[in-house]
């Protein structure tokens, strides 16, 4: 009986790098570009992007890889002065996500600089006993001298471990951010498979995609009193998926806006959403959309559970 051959070391003689893993919470004011940045870091669409503010409602986790590091980037709702119950739930969720992370990254729109919302975040940031980095986004929109002055001003208010200057939209500086995040992660096993880009179930991601298309198509015509839920995700015999979703609006007049003349608007929304859902699911999708009026959906605890938010009492 012969001995089993010994495993050969890598040709270059180097030992494999130990794996690292951790959570990074992206926080900032609405429309700072958090969703665009998380998609750029992950290299795939995991969070919806809209020109409208406050479109990210629930905590979305994107999974980025850099060398031997797995970085779980948490895209939190924008932090702003809450007025409604839903607003309060979103802001509580954002700070909760930051408190649970290994690293907190504050994203600031360089064009806007330190406005009231950023100032309020900076004041509260000291309460978080976590390492923090500053990311100045949209650097292609202002000149370098203003950018350096802004970085200096923010660091004087709250010292950050590192400051990055990026354009999430063009990708400028994003690789450097990913590499730095990777180096800051703690040694440990990966929490997700190598090919997974998000922890959101497909039915949740599908609802978010349709909601994004609502914003894209209707712009300012439809206020924020709308939400989308995936009621059914049925895998058919041929491997395709039958997906049924309900768009909830607050009033009959809004239902008519979503449907459009002769159903033209809902058809266009459905077509755009179907393509992206099929891309995410990597299979053919048959999408069926329904529009229902639910006047007080923003006061219904069940809707909050669907979005992964805690229902604020009172």
Automatic annotation (TrEMBL):
<dbReference type="GO" id="GO:0000028">
    <property type="term" value="P:ribosomal small subunit assembly"/>
</dbReference>
<keyword id="KW-0694">RNA-binding</keyword>
<comment type="similarity">
    <text>Belongs to the TRAFAC class TrmE-Era-EngA-EngB-Septin-like GTPase superfamily. Era GTPase family.</text>
</comment>
<dbReference type="GO" id="GO:0003924">
    <property type="term" value="F:GTPase activity"/>
</dbReference>
<feature type="domain" description="Era-type G">
    <location>
        <begin position="20"/>
        <end position="187"/>
    </location>
</feature>
<comment type="function">
    <text>An essential GTPase that binds both GDP and GTP, with rapid nucleotide exchange. Plays a role in 16S rRNA processing and 30S ribosomal subunit biogenesis and possibly also in cell cycle regulation and energy metabolism.</text>
</comment>
<dbReference type="GO" id="GO:0005886">
    <property type="term" value="C:plasma membrane"/>
</dbReference>
<feature type="region of interest" description="G3">
    <location>
        <begin position="75"/>
        <end position="78"/>
    </location>
</feature>
<dbReference type="Pfam" id="PF01926">
    <property type="entry name" value="MMR_HSR1"/>
</dbReference>
<feature type="binding site">
    <location>
        <begin position="75"/>
        <end position="79"/>
    </location>
    <ligand>
        <name>GTP</name>
    </ligand>
</feature>
<dbReference type="GO" id="GO:0005829">
    <property type="term" value="C:cytosol"/>
</dbReference>
<dbReference type="Pfam" id="PF07650">
    <property type="entry name" value="KH_2"/>
</dbReference>
<feature type="region of interest" description="G2">
    <location>
        <begin position="54"/>
        <end position="58"/>
    </location>
</feature>
<dbReference type="GO" id="GO:0043024">
    <property type="term" value="F:ribosomal small subunit binding"/>
</dbReference>
<protein>
    <recommendedName>
        <fullName>GTPase Era</fullName>
    </recommendedName>
</protein>
<keyword id="KW-0997">Cell inner membrane</keyword>
<dbReference type="InterPro" id="IPR006073">
    <property type="entry name" value="GTP-bd"/>
</dbReference>
<keyword id="KW-0963">Cytoplasm</keyword>
<dbReference type="InterPro" id="IPR004044">
    <property type="entry name" value="KH_dom_type_2"/>
</dbReference>
<feature type="region of interest" description="G5">
    <location>
        <begin position="166"/>
        <end position="168"/>
    </location>
</feature>
<keyword id="KW-1003">Cell membrane</keyword>
<dbReference type="InterPro" id="IPR015946">
    <property type="entry name" value="KH_dom-like_a/b"/>
</dbReference>
<feature type="region of interest" description="G4">
    <location>
        <begin position="137"/>
        <end position="140"/>
    </location>
</feature>
<keyword id="KW-0547">Nucleotide-binding</keyword>
<dbReference type="GO" id="GO:0070181">
    <property type="term" value="F:small ribosomal subunit rRNA binding"/>
</dbReference>
<dbReference type="InterPro" id="IPR030388">
    <property type="entry name" value="G_ERA_dom"/>
</dbReference>
<dbReference type="InterPro" id="IPR027417">
    <property type="entry name" value="P-loop_NTPase"/>
</dbReference>
<dbReference type="InterPro" id="IPR005225">
    <property type="entry name" value="Small_GTP-bd"/>
</dbReference>
<keyword id="KW-0472">Membrane</keyword>
<feature type="domain" description="KH type-2">
    <location>
        <begin position="218"/>
        <end position="295"/>
    </location>
</feature>
<dbReference type="InterPro" id="IPR009019">
    <property type="entry name" value="KH_sf_prok-type"/>
</dbReference>
<feature type="region of interest" description="G1">
    <location>
        <begin position="28"/>
        <end position="35"/>
    </location>
</feature>
<dbReference type="GO" id="GO:0005525">
    <property type="term" value="F:GTP binding"/>
</dbReference>
<keyword id="KW-0699">rRNA-binding</keyword>
<feature type="binding site">
    <location>
        <begin position="137"/>
        <end position="140"/>
    </location>
    <ligand>
        <name>GTP</name>
    </ligand>
</feature>
<keyword id="KW-0342">GTP-binding</keyword>
<comment type="subunit">
    <text>Monomer.</text>
</comment>
<keyword id="KW-0690">Ribosome biogenesis</keyword>
<dbReference type="InterPro" id="IPR005662">
    <property type="entry name" value="GTPase_Era-like"/>
</dbReference>
<feature type="binding site">
    <location>
        <begin position="28"/>
        <end position="35"/>
    </location>
    <ligand>
        <name>GTP</name>
    </ligand>
</feature>
């Amino acid at each position: 009986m012969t001995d089993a051959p010994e495993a050969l070391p890598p040709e270059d003689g180097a030992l494999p790098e130990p794996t690292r893993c951790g959570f990074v919470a992206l926080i900032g004011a609405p429309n700072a570009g958090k969703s665009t940045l998380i998609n750029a870091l992950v290299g795939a669409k995991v969070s919806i992007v809209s020109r409208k503010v406050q479109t990210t409602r629930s905590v979305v986790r994107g999974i980025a890889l850099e060398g031997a590091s797995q970085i779980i980037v948490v895209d939190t709702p924008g932090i702003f002065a809450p007025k409604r119950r839903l607003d309060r739930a979103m802001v509580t969720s954002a700070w909760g996500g930051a408190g649970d992370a290994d690293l907190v990254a504050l994203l600031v729109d360089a064009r806007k600089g330190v406005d009231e919302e950023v100032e309020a975040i900076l004041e509260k940031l000291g309460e978080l006993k976590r390492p923090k980095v500053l990311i100045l986004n949209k650097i292609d929109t202002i000149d370098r001298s203003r950018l350096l002055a802004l970085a200096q001003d923010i660091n004087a208010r709250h010292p950050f471990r590192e400051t990055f200057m990026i354009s999430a939209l063009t990708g400028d500086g994003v690789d450097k951010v990913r590499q730095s995040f990777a180096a800051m992660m703690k040694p440990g096993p990966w929490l997700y498979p190598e090919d997974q880009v998000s922890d959101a179930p497909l039915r949740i991601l599908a609802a978010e995609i349709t909601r994004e298309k609502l914003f894209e198509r209707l712009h300012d015509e439809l206020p924020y009193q709308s939400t989308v839920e995936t009621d059914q995700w049925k895998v058919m015999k041929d491997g395709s998926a039958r997906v049924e979703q309900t768009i909830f609006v607050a009033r009959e007049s809004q239902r008519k806006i979503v449907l459009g003349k002769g159903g033209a608007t809902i058809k266009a929304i459905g077509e755009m959403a179907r393509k992206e859902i099929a891309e995410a699911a990597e299979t053919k999708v048959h999408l069926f959309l329904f529009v229902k009026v639910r006047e007080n959906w923003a006061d219904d605890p069940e809707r909050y559970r669907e979005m992964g938010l805690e229902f604020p009492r009172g």
